[in-house]
Amino acid sequence: MKARIILYQKPLGTTISHDDAAVMRKFRPHFVCFPEYFFVNTVLGNHGQTGHNERLQKKRIAILSKELDTVVIGGTMPEVQAGNMYNTTFVYDRGRELGFYRKKNLFFAEVGKITPGDDYRIFHAYGYNFGVLICADVFHDESFLFMRDNQARIIFSPTFSLKKNELPEEKFLRDREIYVRGASLADSVIVKVCGVKSAYKDFLQARSLIADRHDVLYRVSPEEEETPMIICKEIEI
Asked: Hey, what domains does the chain have and what are their CATH numbers?
């Protein structure tokens, strides 16, 4: 079975232009995935949220999924519930909310600001299951085993990737150790989507990739790690 997916590798907190929407619409994707902390108000920051802004961001995702006739994995945004702030992915299928997933395993900069979620989640579209793991979730085997046990065919991983001073060979080795190994544990395909460095977050590297149990099927080249891209791929799942 083939699935057309879009990895929206762009700066965090930016507007989706009409030109970008036209490019995505032309590809007729089954899924569009955004980076971690993409749907943020840059004035409020990654760890700030208001009820009004949260509703606006969710509306943006819903409208995009309806206009593109697709499933949108809305990167992540801060979500406030009962006085707690979560790092949350909202998933919409052609304008209808399928559900949400709150990041379970926090990055060190989130500790004390973000409340971890309680459990992993599975979503369903096009006749099969798919899952979402946010950034640091991929460092925990239990996350991939959950996806395997719940028969997720694709795992989307919105990610906040910090720039490191390292050789390409070191990056490629880490990709295999984390993502190819994780795909093997989950018996699934993993789609990692990163945000691009910008004035808002100038310490990011966009290392988007797709991996299965055997290899990295696609990765952004080292020369493209600061390049805004709409990555359109058809994959076998």
From this structure: 2-236 (3.60.110.10)
Torsion (CA) 18, 23, 27, 32 in degrees, nearest 10: -60
Q: What is the pLDDT of residues 150-204, one digit of tens each?
A: 999 999 999 999 998 999 999 999 999 999 999 999 999 999 999 999 999 999 9
Residues with Cβ within 8 Å of 58's Cβ and at least 6 positions away in sequence, in order, are 74, 77, 90, 97
Determine contact, residues 75/89, Cβ cutoff 8 Å.
yes
CB-CB neighbours of 181 under 10 Å = 16
Amino acid code (one letter) for 53: N
CA distance 111 to 122: 25
Buried b (16+ CB within 10 A) or exposed e, 43-63: eeebeebeeebbeebbebbbe
Rounded Cα gap, residues 55 and 63, in angstroms: 12
pTM of the model: 0.97
